[in-house]
Design a protein that fits this description.
- It contains 3 helices and no strands.
- It is mainly alpha-helical.
- The longest helix is centred in the first third of the chain and has 27 residues, at 3-29.
- The mean pLDDT is 87.
């Protein structure tokens, strides 16, 4: 049962941290960043994460912990993937 929440947490974490990377790249690269879209994406990131946490908490404490561990496990994966795409200085 707990594994059913770990893997969605992993996917949610990849999307959450991947979109954070995309957001920071856009904001640092573009001189005229579309602030409305950037703010909407930021709010969407938090809303999806909060909704998933709420849904997992309704299933119990172990489900919430598994979802959180999935999100946390995705962070090093996304950092590794984004560092391999970035050229060395």
């Amino acid at each position: 049962m707990t594994a059913l929440f770990f893997f969605p947490g992993l996917l949610l974490g990849v999307w959450h941290f991947g979109s954070l990377y995309w957001l920071t790249e856009r904001l640092s690269r573009d001189g005229q960043a579309p602030w409305g879209r950037m703010l909407a994406l930021q709010l969407l990131r938090f809303a999806l994460l909060a909704g998933a946490c709420y849904g997992a908490s309704r299933a119990g404490a172990l489900a919430l912990i598994a979802l959180g561990l999935g999100v946390l496990a995705a962070r090093p994966l996304v950092i590794h993937l984004t560092n391999t795409r970035r050229p060395s200085p």
